[in-house]
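fyi for ur records
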Amino acid sequence: MKVLVATQKPFAKAAVDGIRKIVEENGHTLALLEKYTETAELLAAVADADALIVRSDKVTAEVVEAARKLKIVVRAGAGFDNLDLAACTAHNVVAMNTPGQNSNAVAELALGLMIFMNRNQFTPGTGSELKGKTLGIQAYGNVGRLVGQLAMGFGMKVLAFDPYLPSEKIVATGAQVAPSLEALYENSDFVSLHIPATPETRGSIGRNLVSRMPKGGCLINTARKEVINEDELFDLLCEREDLRYVADVAPDRAAEFAEKFGKRYFGTPKKMGAETAEANINAGLAAANQICKFFATGDRTFQLNK
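which gave:
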């Protein structure tokens, strides 16, 4: 089988070497399409691919239709909104992600951003410590739990809200359960977002929730920019000069946020959540292993389009 790694933003060399080793040891061949700039390049490359590994590259219906032999596509990372699941299903292509492989990298970044904001973005002036503050975590999956563990190490109180997770599993980690999403925001000095971008969550974080935060509240978004209602958040930050917003997924109106709110806003120059050597390698190797298991045994453990 031919396994294509198509990445506009390439994996580290160590990751590519590891992917190649896994693929070839399992009797398959590896092809690389790195730093491509045109969709036409991707369409040509996938034409004879049996499997596809991507990072944040968009696997649209057009891409799936061009990949006549494609049987499986794996997004090396947790988020999968760059995969057209309906198109994959329509063409009998199994779509997977690699949950958990980038979790620690994202969790460390979330804590780093909290420190950065509480220390005046490392500029002169009196800052504030995390110890004793309350962190609310919206979605307590792989990343959310790690954020909670790290925050507890800093002496923070952790609240979590996840309607898909039994309360006892949250409590077992040392966190407290927020009775509602509204209560999470009302009782948290920081709220860290770890929700995916779905039809239900897109634009869901806006005035109704963020306005409930206590004085000096800070919203941290290392998830997806699409979950934020930018217009409502912008207007709210104008009205409440105590609120802060920090994002690893810069808003569409990033320039306006930066100009208007100064040190109350920060957006990373590009998405940095999974940008560690460890996460890069972990996700790439996981993707390769999942593809090889699928071809060998039909394993579909991480299938998204069931």
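DSSP finds twelve helices and twelve strands in the chain. thats all i got for now
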